[in-house]
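To fix ideas, we quote verbatim a fold written out as tokens:
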Amino acid sequence: MSSPAVQAAKATLAGIDLSSYDPKQSRLMDERCILVDEEDNAIGTTDKKTCHLMENINKGLLHRAFSVFIFRPSDGKLLLQQRASEKITFPNMWTNTCCSHPLDDFEAEKVEENQLGVKIAGSRKLEHELGIPQSQTPIDSFQYLTRIHYLAPSDGKWGEHEIDYILFLTADVNVTPNLNEIQAYKYVDKEELQVMFKEEGHSFTPWFKLIARDFLFGWWDELLKRRGTDGKVSAKSLAGLVDSSRVVKMS
């Protein structure tokens, strides 16, 4: 029997009218995500709107995504963003530097060898959301760590069901935020992030909380331990730290 994700990709899927949402964010919902099965094999494509409706997620529909974490080389602080209120899914929440999707719309973002497609998508979206020039995020500087499979509702209507590639990057970057995407950003060290998690008044995206709960702080420790002779941290120092070949199911 085929998997739920494969069955959902073949099913008649629900749609929705976006006329009541922010126009720019609504247009982005026409972008085409890459549908995958539970082992991250590409099995089709459909628009972002369809992928993020809970009615379709509950059928098993699953797509490919990435989460980028940018650390400042000099002090190892992590760049966070707070999502804009205009976002259709998970508005106003704090999260890692950038979270989005490789798109079927771009041939280069479908390349799976050495995670090239998601790295290209990561550089593109860092520029779109945070205004970071792509010259500051060269593709060969991204360090892929692992993939996670998770499901998370946003509200009763929207949610996420993704195989999410975790990408670390160490770089000095210039941020010029796209205010339709993010409303705030800040650099934090480990202790400052742990305080943010405990404080009332801060909400966080579910994927960021899952990654932080199980992986982030341990990887962050290793990043700091492996400083170079120049005292700077490098994401490339984490190559081989974890088994990057499998998809980790999280809940």
About this structure: DSSP finds seven helices and ten strands in the chain.
